[in-house]
Design brief:
By secondary structure, the chain is mostly helical. It has two domains: 59 residues, Orthogonal Bundle (434 Repressor (Amino-terminal Domain)), CATH 1.10.260; 62 residues, 434 Repressor (Amino-terminal Domain) (Orthogonal Bundle). The chain has ten helices and no strands. Helix 2 crosses helix 3. The chain is globular.
Amino acid sequence: MIHERLENLRIERNLKKKDIAKVLGVVESVYSEWENNKLSIPTKRLNQLANYFEINIDYMIGLSSQKIIIKNTKSIDLNIVSTRLKEIRKSLKLTMRELASKFNTSSSAISNYENGKFLILSSFLIELCKYSNYSVDWVLGRTDDKKLH
């Protein structure tokens, strides 16, 4: 899904892969692997892509069929992300250990994300949002709308 959406967004703007790669500051082959769904897109780059296309990440990655215009040029604030990750975990009534077990990761990884030491991996973020029905855009501070549409 993400590869189709990225390709369509690029084509709608009459851009080549190298054009997007240049905007993101990555080599064309890396962007191409993202668009072809051969390599996971880092969270920071998902945010940059969504900012560039002025749309919601949830739509871009296929978690939502609703395309929402979001005019945002902010980078990711780890404090916002960490607070919102804690809120999701608590709404699920899970301990860090239970959440880690459910998503096949370590408690220390969850702790690092919730304490703002590291930016959450995109693959984990996407799976968590699918499971909890929370918006990736909300977790990353791009919108105040919590739920997926």
